[in-house]
Structures are given as structure tokens and as C-alpha cells.
DNA sequence: CGGAACGTTGACTAGGATCAACTCAGGTGG
DNA sequence: CCACCTGAGTTGATCCTAGTCAACGTTCCG
């Protein structure tokens, strides 16, 4: 049925290609200056204002990165810490068979926490959409952590969140079917876009290409396409121009074997 | 060909079942007292003797755990840190489809580093062979870390090693074939048994059941059996009574796409 | 207008899963 | 000492999930 697509009114807006050019993606924070979602996040966790101001002042540079551009290079041990301000990115490793994405990064996420302590980075970070990244000197960040226990605690908390996410990723890759993995990813991102405040009434923009999804799911782009179509056809999700709408969260969560995150918005550090 | 196995002289000792009872597995450290391989490891990294003595003195209990027994329970946030003194264990998470093992633990490994900082454990730890585990109060360990920077650095280093291992695990699960994963596991363990000083001239004891291997590889026990047989038949490994001998490391590393660990025996902390 | 990037669809293949039977050692209990 | 059971591994047959190859539709963009 090449391009017929006459299945009637529901759920099947063709979901054709959308631009990943420089205009379409969400630009939070009203006016002019670069809004820092990480600051918000830290404030909510209870990091004191002095520390926040210090961190903000420590921003050496705000880089703009085009789609597909490298934010952090694999292996390299720079003395810089990168914070994602706008756009989506992915953390990945290379294997002979291709690329395995470890995590999608959303605004407010720290790209390369490990640089604070490890000499080698096991992964790289690349831009999925055009991104804005705040660059800090890792020395400064370490100093801030030393000076403000609340900062140290927050960073440690982030590190453990990352690790927990990686555990869940491994579980998905090892023990879930393509269907399950995809459903799980959709649930995950649903939750995270809400947490990051970039959702919109039960829908969210998922700028990742089907290739990108294949990379994180351990699948092929072709199979992602098919599986996605199946979920659409069953009326579980809607998908137009990269905007995901979850139509039946319960069913989706069920086939995903998804457990919502514990309410540990405030990471239990120490 | 049920139980014929007449393929001649090479590589095909039937590899039948071996006991996992309480007698067969390596008991390091000659005589009577419980030898602590972690202490050795820390000493090599350059942790000072005072700190080592303190940690050793902090051992509240040495527990013996039978095959299949729980060393650390999932989810539970105990105020105890567990160090594997003898035997093999595995760190795992549960998923609807079964268990996904995240790592095999060898003597000298810390079972549940996260308990030092996180309230929730994403994983459990179970004994693959009979194990001896040193139990410490996490408060004491935190105090030791605070008092001795070298201890803090070492712990942080271990945390990053764990994380790096997890990254490689995810890559394997997502992007390697069964053959590749198995070959990779064999190379990995080759390296780690050497590092832990429990190898024997190019061979090592791999006490894990084929079920255990299936759990870490994201496969079925049946498929592990077949894949293992293929590797044996091709003369890449020998396998008798759970003793692995690598016959052609280069070939194995090639099909595994294996990169030997960086010589960061001394983790580059700070 | 032509090309590139993204997505869809079909036909075919292959890599693992599943189900099931059977072998072999070690224990256990009579 | 033997009968029996259990846990581990092997092997075969069959099915199905996902990969591969390829063509084609769109949309965007230069």
C-alpha cells in the first residue's frame, strides 16, 4: 500500500518529515538572555542562591551547536563541563556494529558529569536538534561543590540518576521486545518532558529521528518505523510532525512494563 | 546426535555439569583468617595503611552466603556496605521478562556502592557460588572517606568503573550479536580474573551457570549453550568443568570487538 | 529543478526464542 | 548400595522477531 494511507480520520495523519532546521524547536525563557533550566532545577532541589549565582557567573561561554554537531567528544578529557540549555542531545558510544545511544538529554541536563572526576569519557554527546550549551570550567564547578555542600549533593544526585537510567536502559536492551522498548521510551520521555516543563497537555515534541530512536533502542530505523506504526494503528499514540500524543497511557505502560519514577524529585543524598 | 560426541580428541571434553557445592571454589589466602582482597586492591592504588586498618577494623560481620542466596536486596536501602571477599556474585535487576544481570562481581568488588549515597537501590546482588561477604556500616565508610582523601578518591574511582562497565554492557546488549556478546564476556572475564589474581595460566574458573550467562547477555540458556558450542567447535576456547581456556585470544577479541581496558589500574581521580 | 534527509512499505532472510526430549553427574534417603 | 531426584547442559524442530535490501514518497533546501 504505497502511500495510499486512506484509513479514515483517526490517528493517521501521515506523520511526514519535519524540519530539524534552526527555527522549529522550543525556545524557552521569553525574551533575550539565555535562560538556564539547570538553575531552576537546582533551586527546586534547595541549592542556595549564592551558589546558584556563582555557578551562573562561572559560565565561560554559551555555544550554539547545529543538528548532528558534537557537543562533547568521546574519550577526550576536557577540563570543561557542558550543560544543555536548549534543544535535545544524545549521549552515545560507538561499537563496531554502529552507535549505541545511552540517553537522550533534555534542557537542564548535564552532558558530561564524569569529566569532573574521570580522565576518560566513555561516551560522546551529539546534538539531536540545534542546541545551546553552557560551558563551565570544571575546576570552578569543583570549587563550587567544595564551597557549597548543597551543590556537591546535587551533583552526586545527578550522577546517581544517570546511573539508574543506565541500569534501566540495559534492562530494556536485554529483556524487552522492540514493542516494549519503544513503548517504554515513549513513557519515559512523557515523564521527563513533564519534569523538564517542556510538555504540552499530554503531548510532547519528540525531535529525535527514527534513526536516533533506533540508536537508543538497539533496533533498526526500519523496525522502529514499523513498530511505531503498529502503536499508532492500535490507537495507543498519535504522532504528527514529531509531536507525540499518548492516547492510552495505561495500555502503553502495560506493554512497556513501565514503572513511574519514584517521587524522589528531591534526591535523597547523604 | 544425542550424546554421541565422538568428534575426536580436540576441544571436546564433554563439559558436563560441575558442582557448585561448598567445596570446589577457590579459597584464596592460605590459612585461617578471612583474607580481604579489597584491602590489597586499595593498597595498590595507594591508600595509606592507617585508612586500610581503619576500614578493616570497621568490618561488622563476615557473612557466608549459599549459592543463589541474596547478598543485597533490591530497593532496600540498608545502612550497610557489602564487600565480596570470596566467590562470585551478580548484580541484577528484575524486569517482567525475567532477570537482567548488570555485572558479575569478583572477590574484592564492592557490591552496593550506591548505598553510600542513594536511598533506593536499583539492583540486587545474588551469590553465584558460595560467597563470603564483609559487612560494614556505611556511616563508618563515609567517615573514613571524609578522614582520608585517598579513600574517598578510591571509592569515587570504583563508582566510575562501575558506570563505565555499565556503559559497555548496554553497548553489548544493544549492538552485538549473541556470538559477539559471549566472546566479549569471555574476554572481559579473562582480563578481570587476571586483575583479581584468580586466573591460572591463560585459564580461569567461570563458575557461572549457562543460565547466569544468559541473564547477563540478554539471551536464553539454550542459545548460550549453542553459541558456546560453536566457539568450542571453532577451536577458539576450551571449556571443561567450568574452566575456560582461551585458545585464540586474537580471534576472540576480533569477533567480540573487544578493547582491552586502559592501563588505568590507578584510577585517575580528581 | 535536483538532491538530500526522513519516513514508509514490501519481500526475504537470519538470528534467537520456544518447546520438548534426553544425558549426565551429584546428592539423598531408603 | 541402590533407586531416585534434581540441577545443569545438549540437541532437535519449529516459529517468530527483527535485520537486510531495495524501491519509493515527501518535504525541505540550495
UniProtKB/TrEMBL annotation, chains A, B:
The keyword Transcription applies. Gene3D superfamilies: Jelly Rolls, Winged helix-like DNA-binding domain superfamily/Winged helix DNA-binding domain. Residues 176-250 form the HTH crp-type domain. Keywords: DNA-binding, Transcription, Transcription regulation. The keyword DNA-binding applies. InterPro entries: cNMP-bd_dom (IPR000595), cNMP-bd_dom_sf (IPR018490), Env_Response_Regulators (IPR050397), HTH_CRP (IPR012318), RmlC-like_jellyroll (IPR014710), WH-like_DNA-bd_sf (IPR036388), WH_DNA-bd_sf (IPR036390). It comes from Sphingoaurantiacus capsulatus. This is Crp/Fnr family transcriptional regulator.
